[in-house]
Amino acid sequence: ALALNGIIALAIGVLLWRLRLWTAGDAKLYLCFALLVPPMLILGKPSITSIDLLINTFIPIGLYLAFSALEKSSIEQKIAALKHTFEPRRFAPHALLLFFLIWPLKSLSSLIDMEGIVLIAVLAIMLFFNQFSKIHSNLGLLAIIALAASRLLFDSSVLSQQAWIEFGLLILLFVIIRFYLNGIAASAFTRKIDVHDLREGMMPAKVFVQSQKRWVLQDFPLHISSGQKYLYLPKPEGLTKSDISHIKAAKINAIPIQETLSFAPFLFIGILLQYLLADNVIAFVRTAILIWIGV
């Protein structure tokens, strides 16, 4: 069980590094902390504790970023992010893929709580769209539609009203976090930096794409197109010395830089919550509510 937790922690750490959500140092620290948490805790509940640790780490981070972003952003930024959140071309593929992934992942329910299953599904979706450029976009969309259709045909649980209510709440929560709060945070935690003040490790918030022999500033795409020429590519470790040289050579005056957040304090909070609650925060709160209402 300890080895299984270590393998899962290693896989998740590398995946989040590839998705540019944290640095290689954060991934190594997460693996070390995951190995410090025994597979069976105070309640004697066998579980994939490395996933519980990740949930206990990301809940405090998510709350901090959400409240900070909502406080720093203007009304106009909030409205613009809301309009962008439910654009059909962004919303539909994610909803269909999430609809399918919950089906096979439910088979892991004996090992992983529902919160862990949802987390794995979200990471799988992010990985899919991160690698989307390696397959033709139309083929990718057809594959997503086919997968969603297969669940409709072969999963009898989709006939229940409860399954659709759960999916509706899940996809609503997903798009609020993935698109709405992320969109607000992108504006609230971004500032323009003069090219002469750029340093290695800084995280660009947008990318310059060549269009008609000019560099045009655009949002980072969900997937990198092989047919486009970028001034620099997104990296987990931020800008490199070579990237800064290319930016200066292109005679760019300033670029938007994203404020970064150290994961180390939140990983420490996560492992403390893991030992105090012997579970992930969401499952603990859900159990407490059920006990309180007498269910």
Short structural description:
It is built from 11 helices and 5 strands.
- Percentage beta strand: 5-15%
**Main β-sheet description:** 3 strands, antiparallel
> Taking strands numbered 1, 2, ... along the chain, how are they ordered across the largest sheet?
1-5-2
Give the terminus-to-terminus CA distance. Answer: 31 Å
- Estimated radius of gyration: 21 Å
By DSSP (H or I, 4+ residues per run), the number of helices equals 11
Mean pLDDT: 81
Low-confidence segments, ≥5 residues, pLDDT <50? none
SSE string = HHHHHHHHEEEEHEHH
- By DSSP, the count of extended strands is 5
Structural class: mainly alpha
Task: Describe it.
With 295 residues, the protein is mostly helical. The chain has helices at residues 2-18, 24-36, 49-72, 75-85, 88-105, 114-130, 137-154, 161-188, 241-249, 264-277, 281-292, and strands at 190-194, 203-204, 206-211, 214-219, 254-258. The strands form 2 sheets. It has a 3-stranded antiparallel beta sheet. A two-stranded antiparallel sheet has the order 3-4. Helix 3 (49-72) crosses helix 10 (264-277) and helix 5 crosses helix 7. The longest helix has 28 residues, at 161-188. The protein is globular and about 65 Å long.
List the helices and strands and how they pair.
Elements: H1 2-18, H2 24-36, H3 49-72, H4 75-85, H5 88-105, H6 114-130, H7 137-154, H8 161-188, E1 190-194, E2 203-204, E3 206-211, E4 214-219, H9 241-249, E5 254-258, H10 264-277, H11 281-292
Q: What key phrases describe this protein's structure?
A:
295 residues; mainly alpha; 8% strand
